[in-house]
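> call design_seq(struct)
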């Protein structure tokens, strides 16, 4: 299955390090960061899981939570958690799914035969409370993922869901945003009371509306 932005994510049941879950129920009314790992006891992923655990407070601020998946069995996950906590200096505070038969990985298109037919590539899905894919990306095993970018992406998605704006290149929370081209200047005058800068008819910047 090839999931695209806007698709409803498939539901599934699975065993995790925090008990059995039904994925749609687990998402609840929150945003979900669903990310895969090639295998347990891999060095790059050890650092990523540690960083994800350390960012729990930042995810909480955004009504978001993380869940990981690896094709290794549950007992291996539990042993790996011990290594993560020892080397990264934090408790693993989110579930890791056991997917020994690759059913979930295949359901989400996380196995790319041209990369490796046996292990999951390192994919990230950003899923909203309506169970819709809002963004996804994949990394090779050699490059650690940037979870500050995941936070930035959630900030952008949540902001642009609320206001008729888009976020420019390298945008960070608190910086100016772009008024969507579908709004006329007259509509923009009414909606953006802080004013805006008209660089081109299609490029108008304004202070972030909720700041």
């Amino acid at each position: 299955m090839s999931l695209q932005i806007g698709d409803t994510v498939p539901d599934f049941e699975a065993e995790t390090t925090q008990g059995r879950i039904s994925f749609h129920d687990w998402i609840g009314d929150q945003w979900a960061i669903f990310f895969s790992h090639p295998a347990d006891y891999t060095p790059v992923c050890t650092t990523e899981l540690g960083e994800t655990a350390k960012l729990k407070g930042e995810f909480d601020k955004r009504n978001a939570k993380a869940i990981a998946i690896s094709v290794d069995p549950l007992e291996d996950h539990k042993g790996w958690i011990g290594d993560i906590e020892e080397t990264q200096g934090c408790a693993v505070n989110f579930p890791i799914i056991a997917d020994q038969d690759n059913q979930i990985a295949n359901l989400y298109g996380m196995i790319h035969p041209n990369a490796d037919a046996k292990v999951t590539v390192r994919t990230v899905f950003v899923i909203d409370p309506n169970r819709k894919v809002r963004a996804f990306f994949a990394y090779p095993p050699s490059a650690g993922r940037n979870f500050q970018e995941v936070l930035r992406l959630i900030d952008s998605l949540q902001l642009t869901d609320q206001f008729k704006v888009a976020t420019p290149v390298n945008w960070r929370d608190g910086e100016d945003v772009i008024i969507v081209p579908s709004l006329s200047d007259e509509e923009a005058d009414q909606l953006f009371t802080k004013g805006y800068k008209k660089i081109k008819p299609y490029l108008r910047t304004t202070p972030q509306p909720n700041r």
